[in-house]
Amino acid sequence: MTLAVAMSGGVDSSTVAAILAENNPVPSTSGPAPIVGLTMQLWNQRRLPQLQGLEESPGGPAQASGRCCSLDDVYDARRVAHDLGIPYYVINLEGLFEEKVVRPFVQAYLAGETPIPCSLCNTEIKFEHFIRAARQIGAERIATGHYARVGQDRETGRYRLLRGVDGSKDQSYFLFGLTQEQLGRSLFPLGSLTKDQVRAIAGRKKLHLAEKPESQEICFVPNGRYSSFIEAYLAEQERKPASQTGEVVTREGRVLGEHRGLYRYTVGQRKGLGVALGTPLYVIELDRARNRVVVGSGEELLRKRCVVRDVNWSFGRISRSPARRYARPGRRLLFRRRGAGRGLDIPRARLTRGTRLWVNFSPSKTSTWLAPRGALLDCAQVRGRVA
Question: Does 23 map to a domain?
Fold first, then answer.
């Protein structure tokens, strides 16, 4: 059986390729290669030239610092495949990536939301279309460098998406939308390893990128400056953001200053507000109807409940009763942002329309701004995301 490894040019996916290549050596007789490396070309980093200066380092040329999917990453992936002696191909999915990830990303910010494009990319691109491309070259299963695990229920045979053993690197949250077929065709060899162990393996296997820094930013947004990207992208499309300047106000309506466009702000934001009251202020609401940024204290950020949407019940179809049993007191709602997790008690919850879950917090109010999207977890099992 042929395995296709998703190679991003980073240490994680390269280590996966090295592990699998060692365990599945190329047969001496003619036949299909057991391991094939595939890289997805998702975004032209030279597109939107007005953004290139954001990546220039003092005295040096522009570079995609902290981001994946650059030409350098493709070169690194190709070199690793060559050193391992496995076939390697690049798949161009730029058009699909723009349609399924970039445009929804821009529209979400313009709508006052805070999207996580990596989750959407995994669901819509890296698994849906990557698996399809892998099958076209004869690979029935794929392997990626995600820190996650896949289990299987002995009674039902259904696959379960499980958190990675290394809690500080767990990436299962970004994979919550995977279907049963996708889980069944996916391998996550790093799910039971820590990052230090992965780097050690890469060093022992003499991978040239064993100490390569991790990518930290959204692959198509230079240095995390999403507002600049949105403006440049819309300008390329000969459009302008609908939301221009407006008022920054308190919940009582007191005008404190002027904002530069709602898409530049997100609920929970503290820095860069341009206003002050002598105490810390946070964005607590984006009022699209009146084009206002509403700010307030940390206490005003607290909410009694939230809605989990796009719930993916990995154990199958359920009724309201099992949903209530799942969300009984003692279950945890885990928010993740940049590797930090926060667990919250759930005293009550109710399922609506099959894919939404209303969650009431304990204590009576809890800050939900820590992560605009969250993964709902049962022990190690991923369920859905917070709306």
Answer: yes
